[in-house]
């Protein structure tokens, strides 16, 4: 069966109808899935195995048959662990059809078909009884349904249902319990992901300050979790205001309630500072005694055990609705509220206790609109003073009092900068997405008469939109909220082409050009997410590896994927290389842009893949990199732009250059199809 999927092409902006095979989404989902990462998570696997063995023994010691329910079996791994620990029978439930199929294959390959029944259903659809999916209720419940926030993948309703309908009272659960920990911190770097700081602009007629709308000050933001690799956050970037404390725990061996609830703890501030952020992570005890513990604690909270790198479980950053000063030794209450799928936090000072009942129960709703318009990284980018200064400097070189300026970027502050920096003429700006929300921002700065928002696609603009004036300065960051990969922001080039007839013949375009850069890297850990596993804890899971490989090869050319590399350390094995340039001063050419070449490997290491990013050339000497900022030492450690995701192209086979006696090189061919806006690439090692 074929389906047609409509989407706006992120680079060209054109509406496209793609004919997709029915299983297309499956391929995307499998190719980009976290299964490989989970299978590489040795610490998790070993502890699950220990916990499962212990649970089976406890049941056997009671003289009972061990009947296991494994909800979300994935590859079947945990069921196979149970079967080889002596379980009498396992029901392995998996809702995602391609995975359930893979589980059947893997279970068979490992010789467990008589002990494990794979059920391709959501657990809430599973029936129990003589004609049901399960003959009887299970007495061991095994699951791995957790995300970084613990409950975001629906663990609570799944457990609630399972205890009511699928398992016996007093069943053993692996894991037995989960505990959520919190720590109150002050961090300018992280707070910058949630609030817009005032921006100072030195204008000809004095200093101007761009201020956020007042609604933003107390805005609770959106309830979506900010999950990051907290181990990459240097301790100099935050100050702990409290010790690490337990916020709440869930016992999975007893009936679980998923209904909304709140938890409250008292904290004593260990330092004075601004309470802004709650850092949070969890651990799971695989057994009731708590001897088998798997923790997500970051480096400073877990100094004793070796850190296990994993990407499927990270740590959470929660933003308090507003920052509040706390003094050393001051007691405050922290409240965590949750619904079925998400958690949010509020803080109350002792003096505000009476109001505490009202605090926080409602899920946060963004009132300032900024949290709907900008994601965390975008907030960080807009708060990056150094970056803003570069735009200011560049704008100064191109604007004068006669400028008629058009800005094409999403939720951008460039229009405000341009206004303050001289373009006193009426200005016109287009913001394609969610423009109405943005008008609040202009109002807060009393600019609603100065900056006109045009809500139209660029190809539909008419001279009347510009009061019959021609645009003399066209500016962009460029940034578009639909961009996933670095080159998607080339949409600016297409928009620029579409508005050509409205531009003066000597129009200034800022940035004047962009370039695509590439570098070969060795990842410290990120390679695991796309690397085959083979044997996992003694079980052959190659069928899973094959399935991922098939999905990766589903499209003729493999695709690059976006990752914020400041969270994923790597070392450069080659020099960075400029591979393509895009001249925004001219329109998008009819012909495609292609390049071929080779890069020498300068350092020993494993070539896991190529990283690609864009650089924007704003003016003669002012360029902005969305990728590599610098190579910080002779070992090749890289500093990446912290606000952008870079494109990572994983090589299908890794070459290891242990000696550089014979200089090794990687050849590449990169092709930008100007019609489709797509970049295809091929690498040979
Ligand atoms: N148990 C495997 C895989 C864990 S990933 C392992 O530990 O390696 C979680 C899996 O659970 C996913 O494949 C997802 O599709 C599935 N899943 C989540 N909730 C489910 C539910 N309620 N019923 C059935 N499958 C579920």
Strand runs, count: 38
CATH class of the largest domain: Mainly Beta
Question: Which of globular, elongated, flat, extended, rod-shaped describes the shape?
Answer: globular
Say what oligomer this is. Answer: single chain
Q: Main β-sheet: number of strands, strand sense, barrel status?
A: 7 strands, antiparallel
Show unreliable segments. Answer: none
What is the CATH superfamily label of the largest domain?
A: Hnrnp arginine n-methyltransferase1
Give average pLDDT, whole number. Answer: 91
- CATH topology term of the largest domain: Hnrnp arginine n-methyltransferase1
Alpha carbon gyration radius: 28 Å
Ligand catalogue: S-adenosyl-L-homocysteine
Please identify the structural class as seen in this structure.
alpha+beta
Chart the SSEs and their pairings.
Blueprint (H helix, E strand, L loop, with lengths): L1 E7 L6 E7 L2 H8 L3 H5 L2 H20 L5 E5 L5 H8 L4 E5 L3 H13 L6 E4 L18 E6 L11 H11 L1 E8 L2 E10 L1 H4 L7 E5 L2 E5 L15 E3 L10 E2 L4 E7 L9 E8 L4 E13 L7 E3 L19 E12 L4 E8 L4 E7 L20 H4 L2 H7 L2 H14 L6 E4 L5 H7 L6 E4 L4 H10 L6 E4 L16 E5 L15 H8 L4 E8 L2 E11 L11 E2 L2 E2 L1 H11 L8 E3 L6 E3 L4 E7 L9 E8 L4 E15 L2 E4 L2 E4 L6 E3 L5 E12 L7 E9 L4 E7 L1
Parallel strand pairs: 3-4, 3-6, 4-5, 6-7, 20-21, 20-23, 21-22, 23-24
Antiparallel strand pairs: 1-2, 8-12, 8-13, 8-15, 9-10, 11-17, 14-18, 15-16, 15-17, 18-19, 25-29, 25-30, 25-32, 26-27, 28-36, 31-37, 32-33, 32-36, 34-35, 37-38
